[in-house]
Amino acid sequence: MLSMAVPKRKTGKSKRNMRRAANSKYTAPGFVKCPQCHEPKLPHRVCPECGHYKNKEVVAQ
């Protein structure tokens, strides 16, 4: 019968906390004003209100 792998040593509090801290480094992207309609939008995305991206209309409204 095969057995499961078992850790040889206990994982210390410091290592455990360093592993868990990796998730707290991520932050939600902020909003920016659309240069055309001045509505808030996510950066580097087409404006959902007016359909502009980089001063060009890419989605016809």
TrEMBL record:
Record keywords: Ribonucleoprotein, Ribosomal protein
Signal peptide positions (record): none
Top-rank taxon: Bacteria
GO cellular-component term (any): large ribosomal subunit
SUPFAM superfamilies associated with the record: Zn-binding ribosomal proteins
Pfam families tied to this protein: Ribosomal_L32p
Region (Disordered): 1-24
Bias (Basic residues) ranges: 7-19
Gene3D superfamilies named among the record's database cross-references: Single helix bin
GO biological process: translation
GO molecular function per UniProt: structural constituent of ribosome
Record's keyword annotation contains Ribosomal protein: yes
HAMAP family per the UniProt record, alphabetical: Ribosomal_bL32
Family as reported in the entry's similarity comment: Belongs to the bacterial ribosomal protein bL32 family.
PANTHER family assigned: 50S RIBOSOMAL PROTEIN L32, LARGE RIBOSOMAL SUBUNIT PROTEIN BL32
Descriptive protein name: Large ribosomal subunit protein bL32
Native organism: Alkaliphilus oremlandii (strain OhILAs) (Clostridium oremlandii (strain OhILAs))
